[in-house]
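#struct-queue
[09:14] JT: dropping the first one here, sequence first, then the structure tokens:
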Amino acid sequence: MAKKLDENLSMGLDLDGDGKPDLNISIKTIGMMVVGIVTMAGIWFTLKSDIARAMELPEPVVSAVEFSYKDEMIRATIELTQKDVEAIKSDVESMKITLEKLDERLYELQKER
């Protein structure tokens, strides 16, 4: 008759020779380690085959229409940015004039004191 194995059956390993097991490994732990190694190997080989297949695929071709759309979009963005910069410059100039007037008035007020 076959003997039933206990799932908590563990093997102790004495590393320093003191008679007490320093490392305990159970059958359940060994099984989980084997399953983990097999899973990682499967992922590795699947990934390698996917990379090899992707390297064989042709490069995507950019059509002339797509290129012209991207070019138009970039040019429009540049023009919009240029308009924004010009608006900011005009605002800065008007603030500069206002600040100069305020500075002159403050100087005159301090002079009168």
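[09:21] JT: and here's the second one, same format:
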Amino acid sequence: MASPARPRRKADRLDQPLERGLSIRDAYDPERFGRMSERVARYIGSWAFIAWMTVVVVTWVSWNALAPADLRPDPYPFIFLTLLLSLQASYAAPLILLAQNRQSDRDRVQYQEDRQRTDRLVADSEYLARELASLRQAIGELATRDFLRSELREMLEDLSRQGERVTDSSDEEPRRTSGQEPG
């Protein structure tokens, strides 16, 4: 009897090693966390965040300064507001640093790719320069267009001179025969 086919899991790929042992924790994906930290850092560095933060702080201070005394959750020294802002800063700083580290990693990879591309371009340019030099040397041994034109002109002049001689000699022959005709 055939065993029932079990559904293939995402990790059951032939090109991936099998996971050994079971884990209670979910797998940690540093890329997903990194992307999330970049989104947070991008938002924290925006004008929208500064505007919202300003609105929240002004509202908080206004409410706690102007509201009736029994409705003020954080009276004058605003210690709870200070705690909240410190908490926000303590989370924002590492997220911003993580985003900067990821950006520097991307910049380093981009720099290496640019360096490789530049090295290839330099090698190609050097190859083309060598090929051009060899073509110049080969052309120096070949006849140039101006040289061929001058040679063809000389040949044309020689042919035209020979043609003139032939026409001159053909004109002279009938005269001789006309003078030698018996009369």
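[09:30] RK: nice, looked through the second one.
[09:31] RK: The chain has one domain: 30-166.
[09:31] JT: good to know. The helical segments are 30-44, 47-66, 79-141, 145-179.
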